[in-house]
Amino acid sequence: MLGAMVAPVTHAVQTLSVGWKESEVWAEWATAAGAVLAAIFAAWAVVREGRLLKTAQEQVQVSQQQFEAMQEQTRIAQAQVEASVRPVLVFLVKGQESWLKNVGSGPALNVRYGEPTQRLKPLPRPVEAAGECPCGPLTIISAQQVNVEYESTDGTNYLTTAQRLPDGAYKHTVRRRDELGAERTPAPPPAASSHP
């Protein structure tokens, strides 16, 4: 009877030990399968991240192109605003007088003129768009070059250089002062005050 009771317990112990060994094998297989799945997931994540990185880089390039286009549009708008207020002074000779004529679209303010080797003389008034102003007697007409510095209403500074040609006519070059660098003509000294 005891043998009959021991036999099922022995059989149960043997089954458990075999099951334990089988569960160790399954655990190893499960671990290996988990590692394979983790590797597959990691590879998928790398591919996905690579695609996301490429998409992000493309978005950065598009944003940079849009920014550059915006800068170009801003530059064009600024040029249009400048053109709408830009004075352009040219040097003319009428009889025995020298004149400045504004062929630009805005008034010329703080006008100074003269030969490059001398201090520039201030013109007493602005030269309106399409306006003219006498600036001196015949002595300046004999100059080989006349410089005229002036400002627009937006504060941009310009220099017109009138170079005398052999036939007596003048070739004009107009530049913004910020393009000139060291070529700028020195300003005249302030007028002396008569007040004590």
Task: Describe what you observe in this structure.
The chain is α+β, with helices and mostly antiparallel strands. It folds into 2 domains: 7-85; 87-183, Immunoglobulin-like. 45% of the residues lie in helices and 24% in strands. The chain is built from 2 helices and 8 strands. The strands form 2 sheets. It has a 5-stranded antiparallel beta sheet, with no helix packed on it. Strand 3 (109-114) and strand 4 form a beta hairpin. The longest helix has 84 residues, at 2-85.
Largest sheet report? 5 strands, antiparallel
Tell me the CATH topology of the largest domain: Immunoglobulin-like
Tally of separate domains: 2
Mean pLDDT: 79
Gross CATH architecture of the largest domain: Sandwich
Strand content: 15-25%
Main-sheet strand order equals 4-3-6-7-8
SS content category: alpha+beta
How many helical stretches?
Answer: 2
Radius of gyration: 44 Å
The percent of residues in helical segments reads 40-55%
N→C terminal distance: 141 Å
Low-confidence regions: 182-196
